[in-house]
Design a protein that fits this description.
Layout: H1 2-24, E1 30-36, E2 39-45, E3 48-50, E4 59-64, E5 72-80, E6 87-90, E7 92-93, E8 98-103, E9 110-118, E10 123-134, H2 139-164, H3 186-213, H4 226-247, H5 251-265, E11 274-276, E12 283-285
Parallel strand pairs: 3-10
Antiparallel strand pairs: 1-2, 4-8, 5-6, 5-9, 7-8, 9-10, 11-12
Helix pairs in contact: 1-2, 2-3, 2-5, 3-4, 4-5
């Protein structure tokens, strides 16, 4: 019963952390509550766009799901980070939504934009946002990557709870063979955590990165991509925990690796991610100083 509760707690905790990380990430859509024609709406403004590699001349379509004719809405945009002149992209009503066309950017390229929405009485100026583009990632790579990273976080949490509450039969931890891998004590769960992190983060992660932004690895020693470096730090700590537990059960190192993993997952995804330098055409690392709760909102507002 105690082990079952630990696994349930681990699942709930993992889902909560995953939702938090996704919703606080700089590529999560910006939300704005508005009142138009005396009706309340929650509008979403994209901060992640997918390229069409076969035809880069096609525009990226920004969509506002708004079934309300007679609304005036437009975007003011330019390449980021540049001092280009701002351009205007009006939203056009399509019957059940509004669409505005933005020029596609190469993978890791960005546009900064503001938006204005008005019903004639109320005017809403959406603060500066940044949208980053990425190439399509095949689902047969993306889904396993997400799956194994989720498993790594789940097993990390369970290993920590088992170590903290001293749950599990450690006699199997000293055995050799498959008996040692049964996930009923923190030592065996430590092993599985390291395996899942290696598969999801050190193998599938670079493959997804290559498809999306053109490089397998942009962390240390080749760059400062925070997502790659977070994975590297987590892998180092779990490798140490795995080594220490191979000698004798070590609650300290398992809990330490799990705490580091949790701290890493608390950092919003895609911070200091790949960014295209518009002047050189090279992919560098940058930072989008915005999230949906305004924690990192820029003090610069562009108005129409």
């Amino acid at each position: 019963m105690k082990k079952t509760l630990i696994w349930i707690l681990g699942i709930v905790f993992t889902i909560s952390v995953a939702v938090y990380q996704k919703m606080t990430g700089p590529t999560y859509p910006y939300k704005q509550d508005v009142t138009l024609n005396d009706k309340d709406y929650s509008l979403k403004f994209s901060r992640s766009g997918q390229t069409i590699p076969d035809d880069m001349s096609k525009p990226y379509v920004m969509v506002l799901k708004l079934k309300e004719p007679g609304i005036t809405a437009m975007l003011k945009y330019r390449r980021y980070p540049t001092k280009d002149e701002f351009k205007i992209a009006p939203f056009v009503f399509k019957g059940d939504r509004y669409e505005a066309e933005l020029p596609q950017q190469p993978a890791a390229g960005k546009l900064e934009y503001t938006a204005m929405v008005s019903d004639g009485k109320n005017v809403y100026n959406i603060p500066r946002q940044v949208i980053r583009f990425k190439d399509p990632v095949p689902l047969h790579w993306l889904i396993p990557h997400i799956f194994f990273m989720f498993l790594a976080m789940l097993f990390s949490n369970v290993a920590a709870f088992m170590a903290i509450f001293r749950i599990g039969d450690l006699t199997q931890a000293a055995q050799k063979g498959w008996a040692k891998l049964k996930p009923n004590n923190f030592v065996s769960v430590t092993i599985w955590t390291a395996v899942f992190l290696a598969i999801g983060g050190l193998w599938l992660g670079p493959v997804v990165q290559k498809h999306a932004f053109g490089d397998y690895w942009t962390g240390v020693p080749f760059g400062w991509d925070l997502t790659d470096n977070k994975t590297l730090i987590a892998a180092i700590f779990w490798a140490v925990a795995l080594f220490m537990n191979s000698r004798k059960p070590s609650r300290f190192w398992t809990v330490t690796a799990a705490v580091v993993m949790l701290a890493i997952y608390a950092i919003p995804h895609s911070m200091f991610g790949s960014e295209l330098d518009p002047e050189t055409g090279k992919v560098i690392q940058g930072m989008i100083l915005i999230n949906p709760y305004g924690i990192f909102n820029s003090a610069i507002f562009i108005t129409f």
